[in-house]
Amino acid sequence: MRYLPKSDFERCEMLEACGVASAEDLFSHLPEAVRLKRPLDLPPGVSEYEIVQYFRDRAAENANGYASFLGAGVYSHFRPVLVDTVVARGEFLTSYTPYQAEISQGTLTAIFEFQTMICQLTGMDVANASMYEGSTAMAEAALMAVRVTRKGRVLVARSVHPEYREVLGVYAKPQRILVEEFGYLADAGALDAEDLESKMDDQTAAVIVQSPNFFGIVDRVKEAAEIAHRHGALVILVFTEAVSLGILEPSADADIVAGELQSFAISPSYGGPYAGIIATRDKYVRQMPGRLVGQTTDTRGNRAFCLTLATREQHIRREKATSNICTNQALIALMATVFMTVYGRRGLRELAGQNLAKAHYLASRLKPRFCGKFFNEFVTSTGDKAAEAINKALLKKKIIGGLPLGRFYPELADSVLLCATEMSERADMDAVAEAFQ
Q1: Is 375:218 a contact under the CB 8 Å cutoff?
Q2: Number of Cβ within a 10 Å radius of residue 241
Q3: pTM
Q4: Which domains does the chain possess?
Q5: How far is CA 268 from each of CA 265, 274, 308, rounded to the nearest angstrom?
Q6: Euclidean distance between the first and final Cα of the chain, in Å?
Q7: 241-273 residue pLDDT tens
């Protein structure tokens, strides 16, 4: 009864109302070939105590207490306890989505503060009320650029996160948007401006670049923007490491910024849920996916909040909708909002400085493959040692190593992407360096 709210008596009443005698009769219209005539191949049910103990046992198998140097879009950062204290409040934890604006003022206020902080971080005029996560935010930004420019081609740098590029391809195919890639410089790890220039044409809607890029390199956004704007294309700037915004000046040349906020007190959690963002210029706001919360006044003149723009299929004609994103990650975005509030401007800058210093200390013990400037990630060569062997050796010391890059970049099969954050300790960084040497 706890999980199956309909009793046998209630099921009989429902069948009687349908005019059938049994569940078999209810499904009699289905062909015999597609009907399952046996019980599901599932183990018998267990008690609540047993299932809780099962998950405790599985949790004990996890890598608790391990140092991690694995980044590549998901980062190990400290989570202030205040974050969980706030988001666990029933007003936030149990609410779904603010369709009834007049009874959702607390949620709307939090989203409004979130949007404001994202604009301050990115240098954009307007930000939406968050997206599912970074990869879909980038894909939605590409669709947005196509709507704005009325062109059907997108160029994306190979130095953009490879999984983000995969998601972009899935989004673009049914929309008949042509997606092409341009390369990166073998020595610097930054985008290849000459290759971009050679592939640009007047039918290109957007150029997508990431900074810091997948290799950790602070990329040449301004140079890419000059080329893109010369051909009438928009520039979409992507980030996966939000902490970098504490020390890197937002590019004034970007038209749309799309990114991932996992670094802002959102646990890695096996890949989600996370919170993505899209921020842009005022003139493009009508083509922004998702929704926005705005500030207004009520009938008594008091400050109030409401859904200002929600160009989704639930609110306007389906063919006019800018996205099929049907909700946002409000609770997860709230974690990021609390994080930004706790750290503030100076705190976030100090946090970014710690990441920068620790990554460069680790890099000083190794040999970065690229000469470009980097934030808290960098690529290093394994030499004649296999990356898997190095990572296995590190695991014996309770250290999770870097990401072998051959999986995504065959030309970098002998290289590993390493990340150091404020959580990295000197002894562990020294152990990583010794494993490579």
Answers
A1: yes
A2: 28
A3: 0.86
A4: 67-79+344-436 (3.90.1150.10), 81-339 (3.40.640.10)
A5: 9, 8, 32
A6: 60
A7: 999 999 998 889 999 999 999 999 999 988 889
